[in-house]
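FAQ
Q: What does a multi-component entry look like?
A: The components come first, one per line:
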Amino acid sequence: MTEPVRPQIHLHDTLTGAKTPLETLEPGRCGVYCCGPTVYGLTHLGNLRAAVVPDVMVRFLRQQGLDVKYVRNITDIDDKIIKRSAEEGMPAQDLADKYAEEYHRDLADMNMLEPDVEPRVSGHLAEIVDLVGRLVNKGLAYAVDGDVYYRVKEFASYGKLSKRTLEEMLEGAGSRIEVDERKETPLDFALWKAAKPGEPAWESPWGPGRPGWHIECSAMSSTHLGQTFDIHTGGRDLIFPHHENEIAQSQGAHGDGTFARYWVHNGFINFDGEKMSKSLGNFFTTREITALYDPETVRYFLLTVHYRSGLNFELEVPCPACGAVLLKAAQEAGRCPACGAEHDDEALKRSVRFPGLEEAEDRLAYVYGTLAQARTFLDSAKRPGADEPPLEHTAGLLESFTGHMANDFNTGGALGALSKPLNEVNGLLAGGKGVSKPVRWATLSSFAADMGQVASILGCFDQEPAAWLARRRDAKAKRIGLDTGRVDELLVARRAARQAKDWGEADRLRDELTTLGVAVQDGPQGSTWDFL
RNA sequence: GGCGGCAUAGCCAAGAGGCUAAGGCGACGGUCUGCAAAACCGUUAUCCCCGGUUCGAGUCCGGGUGCCGCCUCCA
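Then the predicted structure of the entire assembly, as tokens:
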């Protein structure tokens, strides 16, 4: 294994809009706060991306030797939860607990680290009330009829994160949202909301009520990371108003220069170029995707693009009856123009294909296949007496990979850096003429060891290769409706034909396999197969 | 309307002012193979347009054009 590589880490900070060197508050330590989900439904791909970005960041920072404290909250008191609980006839807290559990399940499937602390709003009412009181005492907030609002115009730098001024925002406000007459300024936002009859409520100096949407993150981050900490992450859409308001609350209470030192925001997920959005109804839950694809495939796919960019999911919707690709209009009409069959959204969602995920899965299979072969070689070959350095690309793998990761967690570039070593190793495994045994051994063992490092940073490629390949085969066979028993029969028959050198019959059997969607691979150790 | 972001090959996508502009998919040619497949090797871009700064710009600045997002719940 190569020596650890420790380049200077740079990250893009939303506040300054620039890439800057990461200098933590305390040398060697790093506090990370991730805005977790409001738990009122199953997680969707957007939640996944918002989770995998800090996940890889934390993994990398730790691999670089930093002592990271990773805090990711769960918002379990919220208007949307209350609304949903009324719809489902389930107490709000039970509903929140249920979906928090589902969230954990999805993230565990995705091989996400558990945070060191996962605070919930319901466990931090005292801290929240305390913080609101502090803002009221400082004149930064005012109470009206049991509500408490933040006095936005008293916070001089309001708008600095979203790069807007108060004036600009006031111009737009009012035209789009109903203005609450009791607020001093339309932009003032709720820190505390008085309870209406039947709503969950907690006691406070302003009467029974619940926290507003933004205050919980200010309270929980300072509780678990201190008034000032290093990195705050979340989706781009949280910049305004959520994070802007967090800054106003936290710095209002604790002073300028406190709170998050770096802001990291991930881009959106799009479907066919359109923003995934609950209100547009074009969102997929994690479960809907993992019913079709391996979670690691999804994780890998999320990492193929830089986290700040948008990530597009191409969709292909075949007619469940005849397989004809349905265009948007046909999808919406719920009727196949080719065969006339009618389908509801659920049926279409079950048959949908994601070309991007399929490509990701194939790539993963390539990497695992390489890893499996390298493993087989190392297990069977004897370690040579002489020590030689590995081949060039493999020798440089970790340095190149780490360099990309240190450059604002560029997973796309980092993944690209694996290609040359992968080619080199496969070349060796396929023949490697002219390469001495010691060099071959050194290269393969260096590759295997360094890929272990890569795997621990990405949270990909870290499964047993043979097992992963077997599971992928089963899952894909199921997805495309392949009868693997039939494949095995044909393979046996073909082996006999090949042994008899009956090439005509062997080719006929191969054609039959091809129509099933199977590609045969003949090798020295017999024939294997893969998907076309 | 205000503000922000993006524009790199057929498609996707890295490029933190300076060697021949990563990588993936696809396509084409080759090695291997009974023929294939897989794997490997090779080919496939001067970076939306115009102007500027600089010894030097895909990278910085200004002006266009075109997409996208935020300004309302959203990851």
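Q: Is there any commentary attached?
A: Sometimes. For this entry: The mean pLDDT of chain A is 91.
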